[in-house]
Amino acid sequence: MSERVCVLLDTDIGDDIDDAWALAVCLTHPKINLLGVSTVYGDTVARSVIARWLIEATGKKVDVAAGESHPIGKTIQLFRPNQMKAIPEEDERRLKVGRTDGVAFLAEKAKAFDGGELVLLTVGPLTNAAKLLTEYPEAARKITRIVSMVGTLLPDHPNPEYNAAVDPKATRILFESGKPLTMIGLDVTLRCRFNEADLEELGRSEKLLTRRLLALTKAWQDAHRRSDGSVPLPILHDPLAALVVVEPELVTLTPMKIVVDERGRTLKAEGEANCLVATDVHPSAVVGRLKGLLM
């Protein structure tokens, strides 16, 4: 895979911390050319601020557009992402201005794409992706494949994975779209984690991007501080999906037919495969690769 892969990233950055690390992979990986970022679910304008704040740290020019706030057919109460606490007020004011038509933005980027491989990488609820596929079919045809952090086949997880559950209708549209689809689910992502030593090592980096990532990570940890004073450590759900776009050897991919029920559960079914499912992973290689990009 010698040529760079062009990527459109769709993310709900700002709640769990792994979206920020996935964006960092897209910004720093030598084999990824990030063409644009759209945000999804809840306060998508605030999410776009966080994305721009990280992009700014690299000096790159990557457009960001706020996308759909509400799942298909539902209305939710908007909430401020916890990681906004890490961003200075003056930066928020400066970075808040931008497009708010994320689905049309993705369609424009896809339609203008000419040649090579174009991947839609989704690491949040699938509302933007589903609307792109259904409302802009001509643009969607330009997308070579979709890589999604979504779903689970773990027998001890009877409930649907979060991204799939937020908008089950959108999740079903994705799996029934006929597009080449790679599912990176909890089966593999839960095995890829940072420990305290990893964060301490990254804390020695002089890169502005890494420093901002760690500031967002601290805000996320503070928001989820436990009663005993301990804090969670990042699980690398979304960065794994980003890495698999250009380094599929990090996981084992198995062709399967996956159907989506009304709750958003991803279920293995009999019949012709409609996606590749990550069924095994090399966790130490994933952690090492991520640190190597950001040190």
- How much strand? 15-25%
CATH fold type: Inosine-uridine Nucleoside N-ribohydrolase, Chain A
Helix fraction? Answer: 25-40%
Mean pLDDT: 97
Give the number of domains: 1
Corresponding CATH architecture: Alpha-Beta Complex
Q: What is the CA-atom radius of gyration, in angstroms?
A: 18 Å
Instruction: List SSEs in N-to-C order.
Output: EHEHEHHEHHEHHEHHHHEEEH
Q: How would you describe what is shown here?
A:
The protein has 295 residues and is α/β, with parallel strands linked by helices. The chain has one domain (5-294): Alpha-Beta Complex (Inosine-uridine Nucleoside N-ribohydrolase, Chain A), CATH 3.90.245. 40% of the residues lie in helices and 18% in strands. It has helices spanning 18-28, 44-56, 89-95, 102-112, 127-135, 137-140, 162-166, 168-175, 186-189, 196-202, 208-223, 237-246, 283-294; strands at residues 5-11, 32-39, 63-66, 118-122, 145-149, 181-184, 251-260, 266-269, 275-281. Strand 7 and strand 8 (266-269) form a beta hairpin. Helix 1 (18-28) packs across helix 2 (44-56) and helix 5 (127-135) packs across helix 8 (168-175). It is globular and about 50 Å long.
Which characteristics define this entry?
nine-stranded mixed sheet, single chain, alpha/beta, about 40% helix, Inosine-uridine Nucleoside N-ribohydrolase, Chain A
